Amino acid sequence: MDIIVSASLLACDFSNLAFEIKRAEDAGVDWIHYDVMDGMFVRNISFGEPLLKSVGKSITVPVDVHLMICDPIRYIDNYADLGADIITFHYEAADDPQAVIDKIHSRGIKAGISIKPATPVSAIQPFLKSVDMVLVMTVNPGFGGQKFIPDTLEKISEVRYLIDQTERDIRLQVDGGVNLETAGLLKESGADTLVTGTYAFKANDMPEAVKLLREIV
Ligand code: DX5
Ligand code: ZN
């Protein structure tokens, strides 16, 4: 599978969002990653629907929505209406993960399921028959700019193995602390979709930073 680089807007300059989106697209990212936090599932509140309604018009690449919110099924229709191309929710936040996957698919968009660093890979195994992406968090979700947790590499390998067993087309995304030091290890462990926030947006030269990341993986 080709490597996908998804730029997390959490790390960008919010006072210039349309410009920041264009900057990321011009730098060659494949997707825009939109981190929704509710202050309940994670200890931070980021942004939600009204902001995507405004800035969504500026995004020309696929929008990768990462819901770090309780009871995600309640919000699927809203994000589908706002043009999400893929919606990822947390296994830990859903009473019935299969119902969330089915709801996302009923809107004709791709479904991702995510696990926090402390959640075992076995938790998501039953859903590999239907998801389009697995997101293994490589930091504890809630904040950008955190340090990558090395123990997650083993989980990525486990997920890679399980995905390969299914022979389905499932992307393996990683999110948190992705940079030039970690990207190679993540790729070796089986990741094919890299979220980058701080590394890309805070780089002096974003096109060069994205290019270097792609060269490593
Ligand atoms: C963390 C978010 C990430 C975050 C990644 O909870 O889900 O998408 O923005 O940021 P960096 O790349 O700075 O670790
Ligand atoms: Zn994210």
UniProtKB/TrEMBL annotation:
<dbReference type="InterPro" id="IPR013785">
    <property type="entry name" value="Aldolase_TIM"/>
</dbReference>
<feature type="binding site">
    <location>
        <position position="66"/>
    </location>
    <ligand>
        <name>substrate</name>
    </ligand>
</feature>
<keyword id="KW-0119">Carbohydrate metabolism</keyword>
<feature type="binding site">
    <location>
        <position position="66"/>
    </location>
    <ligand>
        <name>a divalent metal cation</name>
    </ligand>
</feature>
<feature type="binding site">
    <location>
        <position position="177"/>
    </location>
    <ligand>
        <name>substrate</name>
    </ligand>
</feature>
<keyword id="KW-0862">Zinc</keyword>
<dbReference type="InterPro" id="IPR011060">
    <property type="entry name" value="RibuloseP-bd_barrel"/>
</dbReference>
<dbReference type="GO" id="GO:0004750">
    <property type="term" value="F:D-ribulose-phosphate 3-epimerase activity"/>
</dbReference>
<comment type="pathway">
    <text>Carbohydrate degradation.</text>
</comment>
<keyword id="KW-0170">Cobalt</keyword>
<dbReference type="InterPro" id="IPR000056">
    <property type="entry name" value="Ribul_P_3_epim-like"/>
</dbReference>
<dbReference type="GO" id="GO:0005737">
    <property type="term" value="C:cytoplasm"/>
</dbReference>
<protein>
    <recommendedName>
        <fullName>Ribulose-phosphate 3-epimerase</fullName>
        <ecNumber>5.1.3.1</ecNumber>
    </recommendedName>
</protein>
<dbReference type="GO" id="GO:0019323">
    <property type="term" value="P:pentose catabolic process"/>
</dbReference>
<keyword id="KW-0413">Isomerase</keyword>
<feature type="binding site">
    <location>
        <begin position="197"/>
        <end position="198"/>
    </location>
    <ligand>
        <name>substrate</name>
    </ligand>
</feature>
<feature type="binding site">
    <location>
        <position position="175"/>
    </location>
    <ligand>
        <name>a divalent metal cation</name>
    </ligand>
</feature>
<keyword id="KW-0479">Metal-binding</keyword>
<dbReference type="InterPro" id="IPR026019">
    <property type="entry name" value="Ribul_P_3_epim"/>
</dbReference>
<feature type="binding site">
    <location>
        <position position="33"/>
    </location>
    <ligand>
        <name>a divalent metal cation</name>
    </ligand>
</feature>
<comment type="similarity">
    <text>Belongs to the ribulose-phosphate 3-epimerase family.</text>
</comment>
<dbReference type="GO" id="GO:0046872">
    <property type="term" value="F:metal ion binding"/>
</dbReference>
<feature type="binding site">
    <location>
        <begin position="142"/>
        <end position="145"/>
    </location>
    <ligand>
        <name>substrate</name>
    </ligand>
</feature>
<feature type="active site" description="Proton acceptor">
    <location>
        <position position="35"/>
    </location>
</feature>
<feature type="binding site">
    <location>
        <position position="35"/>
    </location>
    <ligand>
        <name>a divalent metal cation</name>
    </ligand>
</feature>
<dbReference type="GO" id="GO:0006098">
    <property type="term" value="P:pentose-phosphate shunt"/>
</dbReference>
<feature type="binding site">
    <location>
        <begin position="175"/>
        <end position="177"/>
    </location>
    <ligand>
        <name>substrate</name>
    </ligand>
</feature>
<feature type="binding site">
    <location>
        <position position="8"/>
    </location>
    <ligand>
        <name>substrate</name>
    </ligand>
</feature>
<feature type="active site" description="Proton donor">
    <location>
        <position position="175"/>
    </location>
</feature>
<comment type="function">
    <text>Catalyzes the reversible epimerization of D-ribulose 5-phosphate to D-xylulose 5-phosphate.</text>
</comment>
<dbReference type="Pfam" id="PF00834">
    <property type="entry name" value="Ribul_P_3_epim"/>
</dbReference>
<keyword id="KW-0464">Manganese</keyword>
